Amino acid sequence: MALIIEARDGATDARAGRLRTAHGDVRTPAFVPLATKATVKGLLPTEVKALGYDMVLGNTFHLMLNPGAELIERFGGLHGFMDWDGPIITDSGGFQVFSMGHGTIADEIKSRPSRARHGERVAREGAILSIEEQGVRFRSYMDGSERFLSPEGSMAVQSSLRSDIALSFDECTPFHVDRDYTERSTERTHRWLERCLGWHAEHGPAGQLVYGIVQGGVYEDMRRASARVVAASGCDGVAIGGSLGAEKAQMYEVVGYAVAELGGERERLPRHLLGIGDVDDLIRGVELGIDTFDCAMPTRLGRHGTALVPDPHNRWRVDLTKSEWRTSEEPLMEGCSCHACTRGLSRAYLSYLARSGELTGMRLLTEHNLAFLARLMADLRQGIFDGRLPEVANSLRRAEYRPKPPIR
Ligand SMILES: [Zn+2]
User: How far is the CA of 407 from the centre of ligand 1 (A)?
Assistant: First the structure.
């Protein structure tokens, strides 16, 4: 088994440990920054590592279209191509392919108010052409060419990328479909998992782990059944994906259904929660027994002028592009190890950089947001080891934060 559980919390399902991969261990629970297009946007690999991150996530869909898996393979895979020598997880491309066909599911399932607000561009110009048992036909957003992605094709790309953890190809079931569609889609995802594992057993690179993906929409019986099927498939880990509900309370319930089926002898299967990274969701996710998380949020927010701060009442966010920060002498936050905070850069300066679209501003806020989440996860992890996770989680949730009034 890839996961070594080193400590458990007595009051919740949280656990802390090490996820063993071909390129080293990931200390869990952990947040995984996105290196969607073979770069954590704005940061160097050495900087990401220095923030305390062990693993990054690359994107099969984007990388197969540009620059192409064959080219990356020539450099020894993603590790050599982007010069990251730690663990890498790659998603299967299913989420991006199906996002083209199912519209704005990402907003619905992740309880995000608006995708456009954060400037996300998931293959906007692309289009899904057909979903078949064999795979999915779609139009490339790069050049309009017709492309086909199948379970085997996705595994082949991830094999070329030489990731440490490959995700099986799944249909990311949208929120708005009915129970019947969800059931058929989930069953097909299970069949695709078998094909992924079959391909990988024969052709996959040695040492590459494969995670199956639990679907089943918001339906308890289907989520539980899907978790059992995936856990019994012979995969190395379990990722929870798809529609998790319209609001956070439901999301936690749905994640709980899946995790409930992953106890006992299945508990050493590592658990990844796909696309979730809000601060309160990370805290709750750790309590639910999730080991790793990935999300575009912290880096994307940073590029758009929003910083994470200990302010639960404002979703742990401050939008520095707002005029109230134009003249603020206040630093971003105390106790953060990032460059902007240790140098005490003023919110006025950071606000000015963000409003001007300066690269340095994007870099500084990306670094700050990742530093913030690295610290959060390290605190939660230590809380599990120290047997005081509830205390740590409660103090994070109650964080009091009162910015000084700006100078007018
Ligand atoms: Zn900072």
Answer: 21
